[in-house]
Specification:
462 residues, alpha/beta, Aldehyde Dehydrogenase, Chain A, domain 1, Aldehyde Dehydrogenase, Chain A, domain 2, 2 domains, 15 helices, binds nicotinamide-adenine-dinucleotide, Ald_DH_C, Ald_DH/histidinol_DH
Length: 462
């Protein structure tokens, strides 16, 4: 795989300040496929200075011209979609079809949506005797995870550029190659120098330096709750804006009137896709006690089918973490009906698609985010019980409700403390606001709500 040995700063690939590098490993065969620089505080400082210097001109660029650059960016991503898919497959390990259909296709759709929004959004509005201008918040520090590596980048960078902000990106250390490809695409799209900058590196070094840099006006972070808390604290102390997309433990609520087989099969597919490394995955399936054993049998059969189809998890640490949760599930008395902690293959960071039955709401595997191909099936007595269980975690990112009647499902969904609910298998919509209630985060991404995160208002009274 092609890797740059510098950082993309102020429109060119610049030599890194330090000598250290990060090896990129293919999780399927554990082979090193590339090496990128481990950025330092000095690299981050250079990048932030470039972003600040570029801010006035980019903020003053007419939205139609910003839209044209985003349209060009989308076109470059389309032209390089096969390379994107191959790169994500190499560094994340996801099957190539999934990389094509999701890891490449979704960011293209999101970049396209912001090209359109930038051209049509009202950056000026009237309120009584005032004119309200929606102005860019300034320099954005974007810190992204590895699970949907290009999507997480585009979900931050595209709205930031549409708003007139400039950006410094610190991507996840496991998946920096697609981030470098993205920087090339931004360059080829004719985005002016300094508007977008990339520094690869370790979270506690480059990430922390970016989050704490006084030249950054907004930190947009996606990743673990532990790091999110730390970033939120630092941003609070500096009185700077922060957007946090954190973990989830979403509920898939199957009401008794639902098509049980469909709800279970789609639910299992949702959890196993991307090897369970999806923050919005429905990792808790809630089934009425009268249908419980039937649902468990269906889920076990469905999970077994994924055995050969899913990729590995991202690295050895993540595999160890997922396995320890599976062992904890067994130790706390849950019934293993598919998969288990043993590795299904000798090489690669694979975890068997795993399903637990007899999971009770207070068990660790029903409360904590596992981030692997592990589903917990819980039993409920009645609708009120289902709602208590669904809302009974610190998280509130996503969820699903299935019922014979759409109105019945909607009525239940409206009582859930969560930011997104799919009704009877409703599809992902890149224009719908994505973000969490409770400890799942602060702020929203995608669509107009995602754009609003990068804008601040200035009111002029007449
Ligand atoms: P992480 O939070 O450590 O990493 C996410 C990003 O933050 C990476 O770019 C990382 O380099 C950076 N980072 C790490 N420490 C930092 C610091 N001190 N200051 C600034 N930036 C820092 O997540 P991880 O270790 O990659 O994954 C751990 C767990 O996080 C997973 O098992 C999963 O539960 C959760 N996770 C959630 C999401 C999500 O989309 N919500 C994504 C990835 C991981």
């Amino acid at each position: 795989m092609k890797a740059h040995d510098g950082h993309y700063i102020d429109g060119a690939w610049r030599p890194a300040a330090g000598q250290d590098g990060i090896d990129v490993v293919n999780p399927v065969d554990e082979q090193v496929i590339g090496r990128v620089p481990a950025g330092t505080a000095e690299d981050v400082d250079q990048a932030v200075r470039a972003a600040r210097a570029a801010l006035p001109a980019w903020a003053a660029t007419p939205p139609a011209e910003r839209a044209a650059r985003l349209g060009a960016l989308r076109d470059v991503l389309v032209a390089r979609k096969d390379e994107i898919a191959e790169t994500v497959t190499a560094e994340l390990g996801s099957p190539l079809k999934f990389s094509e259909n999701v890891h490449a296709a979704v960011p293209i759709a999101v970049a396209g949506s912001y090209a359109e929004l930038a051209a049509t959004y009202a950056f000026e509005e009237k309120a009584g005797n005032s004119t309200v201008y929606l102005e860019p918040v300034g320099v954005v520090g974007a810190i992204t995870p590895w699970n949907y590596p290009l999507h997480q980048i585009v979900a931050k960078v595209a709205p930031a550029l549409a708003a007139g902000c400039t950006v410094v990106l610190k991507p996840a250390e496991d998946t920096p190659l697609v981030a470098q490809l993205f920087a090339e695409a931004v360059h080829d799209a004719g985005v002016p120098a300094g508007v977008f900058n990339l520094v690869t590196g370790l979270g506690p070094v480059a990430g922390q330096a970016l989050a704490e840099h006084p030249g950054v006006d907004l930190v947009s972070f996606t990743g673990s709750t532990a790091v999110g808390r730390q970033i939120g604290r630092a941003a609070g102390a500096a009185v700077k804006r922060v957007a946090l997309e954190l973990g989830g433990k979403s509920a898939n609520v199957i009401l008794p009137s639902a098509d049980l087989a469909k709800a279970v099969n789609v639910g299992v597919a949702n959890v196993m896709s991307n090897s369970g490394q999806t923050c919005s995955a429905w990792t808790r399936m809630l089934v009425h006690r009268d249908q419980y054993e039937e649902a468990v049998a269906l889920a076990a059969t469905a999970a077994a089918k994924y055995g050969e189809r899913i990729g590995p998890v991202v690295n050895a640490k993540q595999r160890a973490r997922v396995r320890s949760y599976i062992e904890k599930g067994v130790a706390e008395g849950a019934r293993l009906v598919a998969g288990g902690p043993e590795s299904p293959r000798e090489q690669g960071y694979f975890v068997a698609p795993t399903v637990f039955a007899d999971v009770t709401p207070e068990m660790t595997i029903a409360q904590e985010e596992i981030f692997g191909p592990v589903l917990s099936v819980l039993r409920y007595e009645d609708e009120e019980d289902a709602l208590r269980i669904a809302n009974g975690t610190v998280y509130g990112l996503a969820g699903a409700v299935w019922a014979g009647d759409e109105a019945e499902a909607v009525a239940f969904a409206r009582r859930m403390d969560t930011g997104q609910v799919d009704i009877n298998g409703g599809r992902f919509n890149p224009l719908a606001p994505f973000g969490g209630y409770k400890q799942s985060g602060v702020g929203r991404e995608l669509g107009t709500h995602g754009l609003a995160e990068y804008l601040q208002t200035k009111s002029l009274q007449f």
